[in-house]
Specification:
The chain is built from 23 helices and 21 strands. It is an alpha/beta fold. Helix 2 (11-24) crosses helix 3 (28-36).
């Protein structure tokens, strides 16, 4: 180790770091790294040489099994350390070898003969994150239970670690801890799947399903699904037909809604819970703009032109979870200057926007999209947002609203901008009325971004290029990157998402082609002649800039 590195751990530096730690509330090890101004890897190498501990990398950590039976998960998270097993040997991996509290505890409670290793705190956190959901969500499995308590049915569940640990019912503990961990992980959906051996729990995070745990026993699986049905006020005796419901929980002082779908399967029933964290979404909506969503500049410019027209219809299309509603909210936020009456009808209201009248659909009470839209037109609106066009009646009213001087924002499930046209025609909307009302269509997807903290340059394999329908000479200017996994990205290699899109603005020539029922190929050629880029082209441009990976865009877009 160089003299400079040795100076880092000199008494003077240690005293300075101790003083900074006392005044800032941070740990002494953090202050030492700040003083050294070193990257994580370099600092850990210096620390390993100074302390004589062997340094473990992220990959080496994940090659070893956790030993949370000798040191609880919560204690490991508190002290930023890991109990691991390597064969018959027990390892204690620490991030702060200057913290004597950890070593005092280990000396008293761990079996003798354990070995001490070193890892950076972000790598330890990534390991803990990977195991967190299964450890907490499956805590209820430590107790056996065969009955559903009548106390299961409560109006609003209050979620906290204290309430979860205090509950005596293993089924309630399992379900509540699953909800708690899903919210903490930022999941958009929770999947509870009945299998032959019991129940499998998965979270959808950044659009991708992640397995987080399982329950053994068909009886426990049935009780867990019944618990969800009770929360959503569904019929627990009915197991042969699909059911839909909702329920609400309180967590850290905020309301969180869950939309529940129950589906019968060959092994029992499956449940999917859509997470609707309105407080989080409303926080995100503050200052929301199209630029924040990651759209390319030419998409932003074109879409802004569409949403500032005085009347007509603007459509955003894509599959569930592709960010359609967020894009429309960003557009409304940009045009909401207080001079227009803006009304939305949604199922459910996901964001709360100031100065906008937002109406939630309530089909049980008879408030459907179509009925609500009729009422909105009598409320003197200037701009209207219809959360989704699901049926011919809503489609007809939305088109007529756009033809009678209103600017209508709405969404539709279709794969691309041209499929939208056929969807409307199948809903018995006249082609002439549709093209007269329609200003433009944007189809979008969300792609995961390479984690900036662990990204590294890579060379894609020939097989991957072939799967992506690319030739190596075509990608000479590409900057291929991928994340190796770290604490910032929960070990996935991806952190955050951005929107990619294709945008078609209609002009008179395109309208005439649609009315004449021209072939799809000619419509695509006409769109390209007007500068339209396909979703696949937009995705490849993102790969070329090093923002995402070929594997990710192959998952999200059609390989053609």
């Amino acid at each position: 180790m160089s003299q400079t590195m040795l100076d880092l751990f000199s008494p003077e530096h240690m005293q300075q770091a101790r003083a900074l730690a006392a005044s800032s509330g941070h740990s002494m090890i953090e202050m030492l790294q700040n003083l050294a101004d070193l990257q994580d890897g370099d600092f850990c190498q210096a620390l390993a040489q100074a302390t004589g501990l062997r340094l473990l990398t992220m990959d080496e950590l994940h090659q070893r099994q956790p030993a949370f039976d000798v040191m609880s998960f919560s204690l490991a998270a508190r002290y930023h350390c890991l109990p691991l097993r390597e064969g018959d040997h027990l390892l204690l991996v620490v991030s702060d070898p200057l913290n004597n509290t950890v070593f005092d505890w280990a000396a008293e409670w761990l079996p003798s003969g354990f070995a001490t290793y070193l890892a950076h705190v972000t790598d330890i956190q990534a390991y803990l994150n990977r195991h967190e959901e299964s450890m907490r969500a499956m805590d209820g499995n430590m107790l056996a239970g065969n009955e559903i308590s009548a106390a299961m049915a409560t109006d609003v569940e209050h979620l906290s670690l204290q309430s979860i640990n205090a509950d005596s019912s293993p089924v309630i503990r399992m379900v509540n801890s699953t909800l708690y961990d899903a919210l903490k992980a930022g999941a958009s959906d929770i999947h509870m799947e009945s299998v032959a051996a019991g129940l499998v729990v998965k979270y959808r995070i950044d659009g991708v399903l992640a397995h987080v745990g399982s329950m053994q026993g068909a009886d426990m699986a049935e009780q867990a699904i019944s618990r969800v049905k009770i929360l959503a006020e569904l019929d627990i005796a009915e197991r042969r037909v699909p059911q839909d419901g909702r329920f609400k929980v309180m967590m850290q002082g905020r309301d969180v809604d869950f939309r529940v779908s129950i589906m019968p399967s060959i092994y029992g029933e499956d449940a999917v819970l859509r997470v609707l964290d309105r407080k989080s979404l409303s926080d995100q909506a503050q200052g929301l703009s199209l630029k924040q969503l990651g759209f390319d500049d030419y998409i932003i410019e074109g879409f802004r032109q569409l949403v500032t027209e005085p009347y007509g219809m603007v459509l955003v299309t894509g599959p569930t979870g592709s960010g359609k509603t967020t894009s429309l909210y960003a557009a409304i936020s940009e045009v909401n200057h207080g001079h227009d009456k803006i009304i939305t009808i949604e199922d459910p209201v996901e964001y709360q926007l100031p100065g906008v009248l937002q109406i939630p659909v309530n089909e049980k009470k008879g408030l459907t999209f179509a009925r609500g839209l009729r009422s909105i037109l009598r409320h003197d609106p200037d701009k209207i947002m219809v959360g989704e066009i699901r049926d011919p009646e809503t489609a007809q009213i939305a088109v007529q609203s756009a033809l009678t001087g209103h600017l209508v924002f709405t969404t539709l499930h279709a794969n691309n901008v041209f499929d939208v046209i056929s969807r409307f025609l199948h809903m018995n909307v006249e082609a002439y009325s549709l093209v007269a009302a329609l200003n433009g269509v944007m189809a979008q997807r969300l792609v995961r971004l390479v984690c900036p903290h662990c990204a590294e340059e890579v060379i894609p394999s020939d097989d991957l290029l072939a799967q992506s329908r690319l030739k190596r000479d075509e990608t000479a200017h590409y900057r291929f990157r991928q994340g190796k996994g770290c604490g910032h990205c929960r070990g996935s290699g991806y952190r955050g998402r951005k929107a990619i899109a294709e945008l078609l603005a209609l002009d008179d020539e395109l309208r005439e082609m649609i009315i004449a029922r021209e072939p799809l190929r000619k419509l695509k050629d006409a769109g390209r002649a007007r500068g339209m880029k396909s979703l696949r082209e937009a995705a490849l441009e993102s790969v070329a800039r090093g923002e995402t990976t070929l594997e990710e865009i192959n998952r999200v877009t059609f390989v053609a």
